[in-house]
Amino acid sequence: MDDRADLVVGKRAVKNRRVSADTCQVGAVLQFGGRRRVSAPHPATREIEILRLVAEGYADAEIAERLGVRELLVAQAMERMIEKLGARTRVHAVTLAFRRGLVQ
Length: 104
Hints:
The chain is mostly helical.
């Protein structure tokens, strides 16, 4: 994907409310060798905590009860993590999180 396509994807994600402008910083534009690149949004602490519990085998309902939040929040956090990590599934998100050191 070229730089322009990266920026369009970032803008669309914010517009469609899949990520917040603060998280994405509408691009969190970085300089790499003189080229502008859009970085992936960073996972929030709560999202990482939920991902860790998913990695430990807990279901959404169990995670929600354990954290004192609604099950919908857990499902939404996992959807955001899948997107932020560039994963295809929940299992893939957990695998990528282990590889990147987000969960142990």
